[in-house]
Amino acid sequence: MVSHTREPHTMNLGIDGRSALVFGGSKGLGYACAQHLTAAGVNVCIAARTESTLIEAARRLGEATGRPVQYVVADITRPEGRDAALQASPAPDILVNNADGWPPGNFRDWAPAEWHAALDAMMVGPIEMIRRTVDGMMDRRFGRIVNIVSRSVRAPDLRLGLSSGARAGLVGFANALARETVRHNVTINNLLPGPFATDAQRVHLEHSARQTDTPFADLWKAREAANPAGRFGDPDELGAWCAFLASRYAGYMTGQNLLIDGGSVH
C-alpha cells in the first residue's frame, strides 16, 4: 500500500468551521484532500464503500490534524449510497467528488452494462451529488465543488475510454453549471491529475504488467521516467490544490480544469 503521512502545511484559508463531504476520502487523492481540508479547520466527512478503510483513514486523519473526522459507508453509484452520505453530512459547504477509473481495454469488448457502470461512477453519481447540494450552497451564499477527474479529459486515451468518456461528460456539465452558480459564491472546478503515487496507480500498473508479461517494477520506473517531472505526483500536492479551491480566496475562479500532471499534457 502506498502511504503518505506528511503533515500538511497550515494556512488560514478562511474556511474554518465549514463542512465538507469528500468521496473516496479513505485513500489516495481523496484522503489527501480530506487531510488538507481538516488541517484548514473544516469539519470533514469522508465517504467510501469499505468501512474498515474508512475507520483507519478517519483515525489517521484525526491523529495528523488533531481534529475528529466523521465517516460514512456510501457508494456514490447507488441512490442509497448518496442518501447515506447526505444523512451523514446533510448540508456540506464543500463537496469533493472522486471515483476510481476503469481498467484499460478495447472498446470493442465493452458491453452497454460496462458503459452504464462507468457513467454511474464517474458522471451520474457526481452530478446527482451536485444536484442535491448546490441549491443549499447558493442559499447559504457559500459553496465549493471540486471534481477530481483525470488528465484524460484533456488528452483522451482510447484504452481508457470508459473513464475518459464518463469524466468528460461530468466536466462538460460542471463547467456549464459553474457559470450559473458563481454569482451566489458557489464555485465548481475540476482537478485533472496525471499519474500519482497512489494505490490506484499501483493497481493500474499491476493490470498492465499482467497483460504485457512485464515486471511491475520495470513498468513503475518507466512510467516515472516518461513524465517530464521524472516522477509520480505526490497526493499531498493535489490535496493542497483541493483545499485552495475550497477556500474563501477562490471565489472568483470557477469552471476551470486544472492539470496537475508534471507537464505531460500540453
TrEMBL record:
Top-level taxonomic group: Bacteria
SUPFAM superfamilies: NAD(P)-binding Rossmann-fold domains
InterPro entries on file: NAD(P)-bd_dom_sf, SDR, SDR_fam
Pfam families found in the cross-reference section: adh_short_C2
Family note: Belongs to the short-chain dehydrogenases/reductases (SDR) family.
Classification via PANTHER family: 3-OXOACYL-(ACYL-CARRIER-PROTEIN) REDUCTASE, NADPH-DEPENDENT REDUCTASE BACG
Protein name: Oxidoreductase
Organism: Hydrogenophaga electricum
